[in-house]
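Hey L., structure's done. Input below.
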Amino acid sequence: MATIALASAVAGCSSTDSVDKSASSPSTQGNAAYENIMTRSSVRSYQPDLAVSPDTVEMLLRAAMAAPTAVNKQPWAFMVLDNRESIDSLAEVLPYAKMLNHAPLAVVVCGDMELALEGDARDFWIQDVSAATENLLLAAHSLGLGAVWTGVYPNADRVKGVTERLGLPSYIIPLAVVPIGYPDGEQTPKDKWVASKVHYNRW
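Output:
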């Protein structure tokens, strides 16, 4: 699968041993995974008449579930919204996600507290589900789709609104809503590299 290859390539890029600290602008030619990361951008405008196929949705979710998790607990659940009424209903309770009104698809990425670690380690679910959300965004970009991360948790009003609209059980916490669709227009990724934010060995 393309998503498996993507995940493997990204994992290969993560080793600090492979980073050339002396290179001011390392070449990315031939490195599709790295190029996918660097060219991704938050897409808020979609072609509303172009649906995302079920096979593509499954590819997105497989990529999301390939993310790492603490103790391999995989404490996540995914709500897929692919009809107009369901998607628009979320836009009504999420003030910063009005782009949902034009998206043909939305994925609500949630934490499953019945699968989360116990005690002080419980909140690792946030990191786990965030990793799944980022995988989802990267997979969407690699498949020619546009997506944007809109936050839900920990805002209590947003969590309550999404929970009520979707009928989520009490042990499911919505972390993010990701509107997805084919981009309407060209997108320009941001260069977020700031060398002064990098520290080696000690602060």
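Helices lie at 2-13, 32-39, 54-64, 84-91, 124-142, 156-166. The first strand starts at residue 76 and ends at 81.

-- N.
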